[in-house]
């Protein structure tokens, strides 16, 4: 095992355990069937890091995701991801790209949401922009209570989910730490804007 570690570097479990310790969270070994995860608190909110796999029968793709359910009093949602060929196709199909007033940031990302003024206030937070830009690949959004699943059902009324996922398994502890900071800063800012409550929504992921 030491030889393999020297050859390939530390494995996912080791890195995720270190990340859990660095944020005061808990590493949960789910075994062969359920997979492992990290659960960490930020205030009253619980942030969960795990992976999931999508299979089409011939091949499969594994994603890393981070999620945090929260009470969303005004129903504000957004979706942000990097510019690319598929985002250009989306524009041709009529998808609206909102600009938030920071040319470099607007040029690098597709930003969508249901309240332009609230989007501009959220991304006026420079640290949020920096943390988003620090992720080499990102799909960061609020999933409303009709788009998420909780024990096979929609979330309880008024509960939405701050959500990130990316293709592949993140094995960079610093990248994970920055992602956790992005969730923490975004939840705090949503709370300041009146688009989140500090209450624990009592949702177990």
Describe the structure.
The protein has one domain (2-192). Helices cover 35% and strands 27% of the residues. It has helices spanning 2-8, 12-22, 31-34, 85-92, 103-108, 116-122, 126-133, 173-192, and strands at residues 26-28, 37-42, 45-55, 60-71, 78-82, 109-113, 139-143, 159-167. The longest helix has 20 residues, at 173-192. It is α+β, with helices and mostly antiparallel strands and 205 residues long. The protein is built from eight helices and eight strands. The two termini are 32 Å apart. The radius of gyration is 18 Å and the shape is globular. It has an eight-stranded antiparallel β-sheet with strand order 1-2-3-4-8-7-5-6. β3 (45-55) and β4 form a beta hairpin. α2 (12-22) packs across α8 (173-192) and α7 runs antiparallel to α8 (173-192).
């Amino acid at each position: 095992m030491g030889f393999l570690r020297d050859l390939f570097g530390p494995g996912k479990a080791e890195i995720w355990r270190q990340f859990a310790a660095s944020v005061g969270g808990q590493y949960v070994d789910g075994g062969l069937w359920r997979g492992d995860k990290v659960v960490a608190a930020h205030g009253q909110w619980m942030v969960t890091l795990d992976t999931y796999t999508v299979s089409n029968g011939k091949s499969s793709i594994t994603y890393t995701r981070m999620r945090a359910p929260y009470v969303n009093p005004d129903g504000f949602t957004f979706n942000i991801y990097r510019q690319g060929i598929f985002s250009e196709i989306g524009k041709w199909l009529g998808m609206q790209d909102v600009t938030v007033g920071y040319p470099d940031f607007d040029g690098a990302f597709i930003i969508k949401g249901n309240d332009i003024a609230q989007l501009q206030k959220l991304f006026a937070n420079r640290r949020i922009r920096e943390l988003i830009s620090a992720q080499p690949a990102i799909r960061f959004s609020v999933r409303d209570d009709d788009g998420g699943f909780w024990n096979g059902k929609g979330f309880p009324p008024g509960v939405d989910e701050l959500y990130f996922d990316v293709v592949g398994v993140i094995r960079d502890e610093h990248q994970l730490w920055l992602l956790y900071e992005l969730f923490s800063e975004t939840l705090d800012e949503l709370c300041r804007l009146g688009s989140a409550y500090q209450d624990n929504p009592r949702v177990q992921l």
